[in-house]
Amino acid sequence: MKKICIATGTRAEYGLLKPIIDKVYHSVDMELQLVVTGMHLSTEFGLTYREIEEDGYPIISKIEMLLSSDTAVGITKSMGLALIGFADFFEKYHPDIIIILGDRYEMLAVASAAMIARIPIAHIHGGELTEGAIDEAIRHSITKMSYLHFTSTQEYRNRVIQMGEQPSNVYNVGSLGVESIKALMLMDRICLEEELHFTFDRPTAMVTYHPVTLENLTAERQFGNILSVLNKHKELKVIFTKANSDAHGRIINQMIDCFVEENGDRCISFTSMGQLRYLSSLQFCDMVIGNSSSGLIEAPSFRIPTINIGDRQRGRVCAESVVHCGNKTEDIECALQKVLRTNFKELIKGVNNPYEGLNTSEKILEVVNIELSKGIELKKKFYNIELNI
After folding, report:
1. pLDDT, tens digit (0-9, with 9 covering 90-100), for 228-244
2. Where are the alpha helices (DSSP H) in 117-232?
3. Which among 171, 234, 237 has a CA at the least distance from the CA of 202?
């Protein structure tokens, strides 16, 4: 039995990894070692490890790491705790490979511990650009620690190769999030409205905004501008999904609470919607507003516009349904007016999602199985594009 370790630290990450977790769990020749950490174990962020247990997947270890602080010092110390916890985990369980998704600081700590423990890393969603966030440097760092790479577009595959990774180890498989949209049986409107205690009886926006982590103390002002625009548009109903545990994320969440309290007739908020409720809601929303990667990766599959605000996602491949704008009130208002126009909605009815792949999770595990069967050589040769050697 090949021991496949999968680590997850956030609600969104788990939703993306779920198809892989499910296939490993039901495999006859792979053993699932599912580890949860970070926000999953935090009361403040909804104790979302319970959702994993409710889905029926056994958690082999819960590794506490998250301090109740969203300052730079608090986050750095949380990473230190994660290093210690995962060092102990790897020493005890000896997985044959670990699968890591994305670019968060939790996974940087996991990758660092795995690299030192000489455990091969399979990295999903490498090569992407997010120029306004520390995520970009973290993502590229994890790439260099990893042996196998599964990118979501060809452009991202080219970038991972540009970083010196062997082309034979870099696979463009599409996005797991888009695969989930196709595979999941989404909730119908009546069941969803009962579940959310919210009705989609007029134009509705899904709003998710995270701090721009390469900027200093801008979260309150920038999110305040979004709320100012939403306050002018009383015709819009709003579903807020709260910010994650990045620096100053709690400021945004407090502002959401106040806004929802003042506009309870048309607004609702969630610490964690869960993948099914979130994707089911997108099919009845009229737009996505904010700076979450979901607005660029998953939302285009629903043929709805995304207003991508500021620099957090700058550099990502985007569908034509994505409208980019600055973080000033007038920039956001202008973008909102654009997506509300009937002709814009008509233009994006047939939009193509560049992150769409075919059998993404199946392809990832097929490659992992083959590589483990051959035996993984951790000594990597740098691929020089200019010399092609």
Report:
1. 999 999 999 999 999 88
2. 135-145, 154-162, 176-183, 189-196, 219-232
3. 237
